Amino acid sequence: MGSFCFHTSAVPSSHLLSGTDCTYGLGGLKLGNLRKIPFSRTHKASKVLAFYGLKKPPYKLDALEPYMSKRTLEMHWGELHRGYVEGLNKQLEQNDILYGYTMDELIKATYNNGNPLPEFNNAAQVWNHNFFWESMEPRGGDMPKLGLLDQIEKDFGSFTNFKEKFVDAALTLFGSGWVWLVLKRQERRLEVVKTSNAINPLVWNDIPIINLDVWEHAYYLDYKNDRAAYVKNFLDHLVSWDVATARMIRAEAFVNLGEPKIPVA
Fold this sequence. Notes:
By secondary structure, the chain is α+β, with helices and mostly antiparallel strands. It has eight helices and six strands; from the N terminus they run βββαααααβββααα.
């Protein structure tokens, strides 16, 4: 989920955080061998700096209405998500040891085995939000199909059971955080997990399939304090099971799940 722009101290500061100047990729870009390349617009060489860009949601900001409003996207993506990107970039200016990491690697390194470094919260929130926007689509919801549905029914007993566990996790999460459907590598099964604040399942080596932002700012403009209505509309109208299926197919390259045994009604 990482993305980088290349700049130097010779480039005007107004150009540093322009998301449209960046090339985005699912896995990020390795920059370690570029760290000390000199740049010469002046007689004084300056080191190359690598910055993350603000990635746009894969739909127009009003495309999720009426379940998530344009004004929510303008505030949540356009202001809060942007703030995490800018905060991370400012931190990276002060710590070139972290240059060259993909976003996944950056999160694991800065989590520091449960003793987070200063860069962790911004890095994780950038990743979490990119994943969240891509976990939704206009006219989403309904039910997953084919192999993903089979696996959900195998691991939760039924799709209804899965939804109940997901809703319960969202409503019982204390304070701010995220709810995830993940593939557990060691257990080789899907599970619903909840995380506090910026923490995401990458730090435990789980493979995220979908996520839901349950920080209050994610839903307050549209639902006030009715978190239950927000969660229901996410599952019924917003979640992208097509994207989740694609993520599951990729995950199966790393985890051998065998043949799902679909429960008999």
